[in-house]
Amino acid sequence: MSTPVETPATTSLDIGGTTVGPDAPPFIIAEMSGNHDGSLDKALEIVRMAAKAGAHAIKLQTYTADTITIDVDKPEFRLSEGHELWGSRRLYELYEEAHTPWEWHKPIFDLARELGILAFSSPFDPTAVEFLEGLEVPAYKIASSEIVDLPLIRLAAQTGKPLIISTGMASVGEIAAAVEAAHSTGNRQVMLLSCTVSYPADPASSNLRGIPVMREAFGVPVGLSDHTMGIGAAVASVAFGSVLVEKHVTMSREEGGVDSAFSLEPDELAALVRETKVAWQALGEPRIGAREAEREGLRFRRSLFVVEDVKAGDPVTAANVRSIRPANGLAPDAFSLVESKRFTRDVERGTPMSWDLV
């Protein structure tokens, strides 16, 4: 089995002028896939929705049924009968339904640029890379099933664009080979995505604890391509170091669409953008102790205060010295050391207790 390659660690990528890495909020990719339902108008509506929700990028898939498979009807070319979404369907028919016509790419990309959102795609064969280069995409995404297509990975990497590789189903050796294939071109702008190739995916199979393992093993940033329902797994991934989250999106699950069953609706996508940023902001540093934001709170910790006016010579008792807020007085645990001692002077109620008073 291949082992991870020894290459200088890459901590972040530059995708179309946006830094993607641990020092920036998670980069959110809205995957359109086939949820346009064969309508360019709906595809453009999804772009507008993604931009309004705050996603950083909209992503397509660039293939035709003929570039990704062939038109035959044999058992190998059908999904399993028990598949939750596409049981027994022929691959060719499914890809005919789901593909995004290549002539739609330019208007989709043009609208994205107009709205200030990045747009790129997953190529599935060399003709797709050539086509996408003509559209000046800022990055390439390699789908999980294509991680074993090393010539395709090298071709995409040779463009010098950032390369995002999904790792669903892949072994350590297969991931290592894919990273090496990309790096062999001199391209160090490589990122891996943790992914579970199941539609929809069970959160229990997300294995988010593998994210830091993958980052350390391959020396590249790691994100999450998430097919679970909702945003819980995606938000949680940020705590494990995910710097990018890709989720399928749709205008409405009720309206159907080839991937709509596990796709986010507009409000959910907006929540994903918002909550992953909150999760990133909450990471902080690997330290324990008071934060700068808690400075005011420190003033109102409990401490020992004189709570009744006393005269010189009066003994300290539980009635005239108590643990209250604010701070400034002796620590509450010091009461046993001052109890029954006598005040050295008159003390006004509301004075912090100190050693020089007894």
What is the compact description of this entry?
This protein has an 8-stranded parallel β-sheet. The protein has helices spanning 40-53, 65-68, 91-98, 102-115, 126-134, 150-157, 172-183, 210-218, 232-239, 266-281, 295-298, 335-338, and strands at 13-15, 18-20, 27-31, 57-62, 118-123, 140-142, 163-166, 190-195, 222-226, 244-248, 303-306, 321-324, 351-352. By secondary structure, the protein is α/β, with parallel strands linked by helices.
Structure description:
This protein has helices at 40-53, 65-68, 91-98, 102-115, 126-134, 150-157, 172-183, 210-218, 232-239, 266-281, 295-298, 335-338; strands at 13-15, 18-20, 27-31, 57-62, 118-123, 140-142, 163-166, 190-195, 222-226, 244-248, 303-306, 321-324, 351-352. The protein has 358 residues and is an alpha/beta fold. It has two domains: 13-63 and 99-281, Aldolase class I (TIM Barrel); 292-357, Type Iii Antifreeze Protein Isoform Hplc 12 (Alpha-Beta Complex). An eight-stranded parallel sheet has the order 5-4-3-10-9-8-7-6. The longest helix is centred in the last third of the chain and has 16 residues, at 266-281. The radius of gyration is 29 Å and the shape is elongated. InterPro entries: AFP_Neu5c_C_sf (IPR036732), Aldolase_TIM (IPR013785), PseI-like (IPR051690), PseI/NeuA/B-like_N (IPR013132), Pseudaminic_synth_PseI (IPR020030), SAF (IPR013974), SAF_AFP_Neu5Ac (IPR006190), SAF_PseI/NeuA/NeuB (IPR057736). This is Pseudaminic acid synthase. One of its GO terms (molecular function) is transferase activity.
